[in-house]
């Protein structure tokens, strides 16, 4: 977990791109401990795409799709503002799923939604990446993406 300093000594931002559901203990300058719960969780933590043939058509037989479920365990609504799958490559966030349809990217406290990822292999072989979904509050959740391209 990393720490990013805020505009003054009283503000910090915790950064844990691998967080699934966690909490952290902060010690203030006056030696008081404060427990901060991360409000978002993701399941599964790894998406394994079915073997997918290399080829030009997408959508179609040369693409695979899989979804994660994001749960807001916090007390306030979270707003999804972005998603990435690392450098340009075979994985991408489709922004499909119920996070878009049911909530227009707003996730109320206590609610869950699904978020879709796509895979289009560029060459035969196994490839891995980390997908990250970011929220306006500064929290993010990540998922390991694992796929295998097969000869066309």
Secondary structure topology:
Blueprint: E1 2-5, E2 12-15, E3 23-27, E4 33-37, E5 40-43, E6 46-48, E7 52-53, E8 64-72, E9 78-84, E10 91-93, H1 98-101, E11 106-107, E12 112-119, E13 125-135, E14 140-150
Explain what the structure shows.
- By secondary structure, this protein is mostly beta strands.
- It has one domain: Immunoglobulin-like, CATH 2.60.40.10.
- 3% of the residues lie in helices and 51% in strands.
- It has 1 helix and 14 strands.
- Strands 6, 7, 9, 11, 13 and 14 form a 6-stranded mixed sheet that branches.
- A hairpin with a 4-residue loop joins β13 and β14.
- It is elongated and about 60 Å long.
- The relative contact order is 0.24.
What Rg do the Cα atoms give? 18 Å
- Largest pleated sheet: 6 strands, mixed
**Ends apart, CA distance between termini:** 41 Å
Order of helices and strands: EEEEEEEEEEHEEEE
Strand content: over 45%
In percent, how helical is the residue content? under 10%
- How many independent structural domains? 1
Please sum up the structure shown.
The protein is mostly beta strands and 152 residues long. It has one helix and 14 strands. The chain has one helix spanning 98-101, and strands spanning 2-5, 12-15, 23-27, 33-37, 40-43, 46-48, 52-53, 64-72, 78-84, 91-93, 106-107, 112-119, 125-135, 140-150.
List keywords for this structure.
single chain; 152 residues; mainly beta; Immunoglobulin-like; six-stranded mixed β-sheet; four-stranded antiparallel β-sheet; 1 helix; elongated
